[in-house]
Amino acid sequence: MQTRVGKTNSHKTFFFNCLLCNYSYETPMPYFISEELPKLVDVEPYKLERSFKNGNIKFYNNYGIKGLQFRKSVGKVEAGSMICFGDKIEIIRGFPKIRRTLMLYPSLEIHFNNEVAVEEKMNGYNVRIALINNKIVAFTRGGFVCPYTTKKAPEIMDMSTFFIDHPELVICGEMVGSENPYVTHHYREIGKLGFRIFDLREKGSNKALPVQEKVQILDSYSLPRVNFFGILKIDEAPERIFELVLQLGKDDREGVVIKDPKMEIEPIKYTSSQAHNGELEYAFTYPFDFGRSFFFSRVIREGFQAYELNETEDEIKNRAHKLGESILHPMINTIKDIAEENPASEDIVIHVDDLKEAEIFVRHLRDLGVVATVHSFEEGKAIIRRVHQSTTDRISNFLRGGLY
Fold it and tell me: If exposure means fewest CB atoms within 10 Å of the residue's CB, which of 50, 185, 227, 313 is most exposed?
């Protein structure tokens, strides 16, 4: 299917032509939104019309993909969903938000039935990979095509046979490693860059395959998956999960995702104290580029975790000490840097074939609202400098005597 967007009576037009049967179709985009899209996504027309008018559903045309991008959720359709126009219309649903438990014992008992499956939660960035127009394409959580991940993921793992056999499935996973351009974290077994799969979901419905079936399929294609710690009886699960998370924290790893083995109940996540402190340390390096809820939620997690673990006074003091260091040290260092007229910035390393490829990735970051430039390029190694402008501007103002 070929698609284009034109102008008809000042309205954007949806047009396609099927190369197989030569059938063509053209309609104003608002009509497509109100009459055709509701049938595809099973959402009331008025909700879709309102979202389109408000700019929450936008036409997307980048990196060879044309479609409709859901900037915010509409009805049961998640934010980050993409309606892709190709040889046929394909729906790549957004990845559902996973809620968090603060108290393991009561949450597991209330939320799940008799058993839970436990997998590792890794510290990277969420990616969905699908076969669109016979090409393997990687989508960020927000529904943008990531040119870097689209190129790198097939180099990391061979998905060709999997997608020949399962074109209807979407690979949901985490891009991880010390040269991850979004969230840098070192894993001994991964090194610079790797990928770990945590879900297989159906296009359109977003239905996830049961945990053990997913594990079986991924292993049969030698596709890398997150660590699967097994299926636990609900009464023994909290104690075992505490043990896992404490050990993961000692190894500087993030935590776990707790799932219904059949994937019929929404999963929940539980993370380590070390992960909370790591996130706070990063956020307070750029304190005016993160919302207050980001800081507050991580402090709240620490309080509930200390309570449920029944920590001693000495253990609580140690936790509080680490929490305070995660907040103060990075912020003071940033203030010192800006006082010396250096911007609040970070350097990201990516390996690319040429300078043009690095510049394409920078353009992608700018599409996401990130201030970034190619700082240097040499022998396939590009350093991308990301500037945290709000932190730079606000701290500079305060250092000059501006009022808070």
Answer: 313
